[in-house]
């Protein structure tokens, strides 16, 4: 057994985490400002919302397909890297051009949004599957903590740093001086730089080890094996993550509006509620991976799901209780942000350890298939959640989404009790 623990893998994990950094950098900027660009041409929020689901729709189809294709790819630079070095630079270019395209009309903007989502979602599967290829199963919770921390840091950079540059006017050749542009090309430049570093410093294993080549099976058969396997752990995890993402994605898109309508924040300040989630996510991803290595992944996830349910119930009662106590607006806002921080802390711990549980059940040959299934179920939930919770808000008001999410976390907690696989094994597998 490797007595040095996870320490030798920190360097390679941080390098692999550059891929997650690119996604964490682009996603919050996309979610925040694409509706603003679309709003210049479209009045209907329903139509804007439908366009905004493109990324989730593409994710459902492209992530499993490209991840599975990369499982079967054999090249001198590895099986994931050929997809990464093509799709990430194209993603960077499309992302950089988004605000410029908005100046040429709605059609051009939608074309760029379409291309961006094709390239970004095609890149995501190979980027995610790269980590379990390189890191032994015993240490994937710690490794996932590292790369999720990098994704969280990127989200903070995007929302707190780059987003502030939207107010900076810059000269654009042929278009004059423009505002609402600068964060996008800067983010695109960082994505391109991350791709270069990944290519030169992360060296994949070439092809599939000879002892595992015979274990490879077609994608369709692999999916059937997961469903038909006597141990239903993988299926239960997939169903559980659909449910907990249903709760998470049902709450987070409406947090800004809730902050404005219930807490009286400005539009700019409203984004800080989601920022609390990102900060907590970045701070606790690595510790949660270390904790899971000691007490078990399933135990860690179940503790965090119960904690999430409690925090969500506190959020449900926050408005009437703080009003009843006649707290000042500042204290009401601070206590709400504190609850969102705890929400992010426990949520990050669930995400950090659920992926490694699935990877633990996969072989090297079909790692991409399990990665694709994770994203299929999570993105399907992301498409389902906003309309569901939007309907709940229309019928019963904003506060009920917290109760709905608490019920989701409780249901996932119960399902996870029946999971028996996915724990780290004491094994000594070379990283490269």
Our measurement of the CA-to-CA distance between the termini, rounded to an integer number of angstroms, reads 16 Å
User: Radius of gyration over alpha carbons?
Assistant: 21 Å
Q: Tally the helices: what do you get? A: 16
According to DSSP, the number of beta strands is 2
Rough shape? Answer: globular
Along the chain, the helix and strand elements come as HHHHHHEEHHHHHHHHHH
The stretches of 5 or more residues where confidence is low (pLDDT under 50) are 207-219, 426-432
**Main sheet summary:** 2 strands, antiparallel
Number of domains: 2
CATH class of the largest domain: Mainly Alpha
The computed structural class is mainly alpha
Q: Per DSSP, what share of the residues sits in E-state strands of 2 or more residues?
A: under 5%
**Fourth-tier CATH superfamily name of the largest domain:** MFS general substrate transporter like domains
Judging by the overall fold, what is the CATH architecture of the largest domain? Up-down Bundle
Mean pLDDT: 80
Helix percent reads over 70%
The CATH topology label of the largest domain is: Growth Hormone, Chain: A
Q: Kindly report the spatial arrangement of strands forming the biggest sheet.
A: 1-2
């Amino acid at each position: 057994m490797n007595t040095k623990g996870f320490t030798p893998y920190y360097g390679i994990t941080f390098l692999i985490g550059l891929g997650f950094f690119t996604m964490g950098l682009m996603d919050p900027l996309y979610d925040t400002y694409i509706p603003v660009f679309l709003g210049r041409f479209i009045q209907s929020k329903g139509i804007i919302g439908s366009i905004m689901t493109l990324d989730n729709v593409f994710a459902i189809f492209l992530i499993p397909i490209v991840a599975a294709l990369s499982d079967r790819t054999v090249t001198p630079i590895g099986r994931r890297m050929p997809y990464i070095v093509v799709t990430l630079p194209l993603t960077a270019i499309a992302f950089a051009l988004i605000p410029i395209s908005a100046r040429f009309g709605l059609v051009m903007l939608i074309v760029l949004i379409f291309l961006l989502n094709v390239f970004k979602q095609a890149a995501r599967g190979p980027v995610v599957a790269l980590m379990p290829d390189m890191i032994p199963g015993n240490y994937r919770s710690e490794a996932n903590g590292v790369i999720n921390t990098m994704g969280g840091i990127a989200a903070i950079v995007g929302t707190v740093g780059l987003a502030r540059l939207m107010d900076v006017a810059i000269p654009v050749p042929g278009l004059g001086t423009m505002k609402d542009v600068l964060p996008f090309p800067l983010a695109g430049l960082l994505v391109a730089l991350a791709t270069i570093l990944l290519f030169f410093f992360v060296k994949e294993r070439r092809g599939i080890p000879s002892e595992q080549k015979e274990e490879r099976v077609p994608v369709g058969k692999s999916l059937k094996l997961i469903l038909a396997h006597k141990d239903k752990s993988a299926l239960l995890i997939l169903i559980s993550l659909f449910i907990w993402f249903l709760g998470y994605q049902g709450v987070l898109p409406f947090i800004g509006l809730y902050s404005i309508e219930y807490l009286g924040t400005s539009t700019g300040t409203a984004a800080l509620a989601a920022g609390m989630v990102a900060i907590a996510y970045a701070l606790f991803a690595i510790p949660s991976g270390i904790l899971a290595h000691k007490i078990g992944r399933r135990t860690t996830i179940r503790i965090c799901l119960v904690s999430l349910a409690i925090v969500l119930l506190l959020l449900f009662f926050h408005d009437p209780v703080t009003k009843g106590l006649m707290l000042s607006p500042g204290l009401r806002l601070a206590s709400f942000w504190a609850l969102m921080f705890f929400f992010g802390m426990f949520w990050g711990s669930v995400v950090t350890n659920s992926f490694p549980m699935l990877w633990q059940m996969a072989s090297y040959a079909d790692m991409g298939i399990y990665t694709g299934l994770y994203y299929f179920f999570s993105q399907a939930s992301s498409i389902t959640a906003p309309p569901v919770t939007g309907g709940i808000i229309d019928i019963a008001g904003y506060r009920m989404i917290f109760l709905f999410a608490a019920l989701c976390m409780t249901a996932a907690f119960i399902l996870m009790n029946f999971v028996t696989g996915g724990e780290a094994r004491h094994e000594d597998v070379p990283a490269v």
